[in-house]
Specification:
84% helix, 89 residues
């Protein structure tokens, strides 16, 4: 507990503490704007075409590509996580 309190006391005495506090306050604003933009993009592009997806037996090529890329990136993340324990010194 004393280490945590000492860290916060040191943070207040440095410029890093001010920058960290300001960035912590700005994060919800930036992230909220980002999520709003993603929501608008989803409704403009994908949501309008969902009835077509129900009628077609095969999903659109972009959706299949997105699924493939998602699986590929998850495989990379898992592999990187597993190998980190053996390569970090």
């Amino acid at each position: 507990m004393a280490g945590v309190l000492g860290f916060f006391q040191w943070l207040e005495a440095t410029e890093l503490g001010t920058a960290l506090r300001e960035s912590t306050l700005m994060f919800p604003l930036v992230e909220g704007t980002h999520l709003l933009a993603l929501g608008v993009a989803y409704h403009v592009t994908i949501h309008r075409r969902l009835p077509e997806w129900d009628r077609d037996p095969v999903p659109p090529a972009r959706a299949r590509l997105a699924g493939l890329l998602s699986l590929l990136f998850w495989a990379i993340v898992i592999t990187a996580g597993r190998t980190t324990a053996y390569t970090m010194k």
